[in-house]
Fold this sequence. Notes:
Structural class: mainly beta
Strand content: over 45%
Number of strands: 33
Distance between the termini: 28 Å
Strand order of the largest sheet: 1-26-25-24-23
Amino acid sequence: MAVGCAGCDLLSPDPPAVKAVWTAPLPGPNAILGAHGFDSTALYVRVYGDTTRFVKLDAKTGRSLWVAPQTLIEFGPAKLHVHEGLLLVAATGGVVAYRTNDGSVAWQRPLPGRLSTVPGIDTKTLYVPDQEGAVTALVLASGLIRWRWEDTASSGSRLTLFAAGVIDSVVYAVGRISGLNAGGDRGVVLALDAATGRERHRFTTPELRSDYRSVRSDGRGGLLLGNMARSGVDDLDPSTWSFRWRVSRPRNEVFPVSDLAVHDGILYVGWQDVVAIDVATGRELWSRGSRGTTFSTVVCGQQVVTQHFNLSFFDRATGRLEAYNDWQDGQYPTSDLVEDGERVYAISENFAYAFPCRR
């Protein structure tokens, strides 16, 4: 039986407000963040102003370390990747790798198609799906194309890919397939060999109105899939290509399917309420009302932190609302949260913030 109730925290007294450890202004007039990434020492921020730029901030102090201009990219991604001294930026136009030490360009690779917001990555390769139904594998060290997979089996239908993940030497690219031959919109999962790009398997949902936007391991050999059309999460077993469990909310609820926060076998997701789900069974463990539609969810220390028009800090074990932060001076969140186990980092229209988490 689930513990708690959706909306119950909305009826309780306000919890204490949490204060930022630091607040840093972002450069440029009316700066609007498109994305940010994180490594062990720094926060990387994509800022819109008169021009698009990337900013590196010291994670301890918020001090600006460098500002790099955008190169061939037309529109920014939803996420940035930081890996082995490179800041990787994938969006319309191609992929750019900036050196994290000084912001200089290590390499850039023009690519056709509208690139997905969530590439997959392993130790040597970046796997970039695009919304025209292709996946390109790029060598991290040089940006050279290792292989490129293009759809040749969807005649009469359109394949659109939004995200990729790499698990046990298999690239799982997810999205939807649409058109007459598909009978409508169905969720799709492609399994590609990470070394060669060879298609191993193609799975489509049995029902219409499915649309996968994120994929990650469930830690038990399965795939957790964010299903935007169903406003839910599916756990798929790739050894049998059958569902272990599926959960969803009413379709009028917004669900940020890019955020599948998993910790110690528990999945935390945010709809109008914040829910903890046992990954092994799909059983709801607790549910708590948030202060609006949740746009981002992370696990930081002993807390689950959600972002809507403020930040809410929930106890990870019980779901009790412990603290919150209201945005001030007309500032609103404009990107996903990132965390390092001690702090959670958030971005508003003109500022970056670091807030402490309970450890």
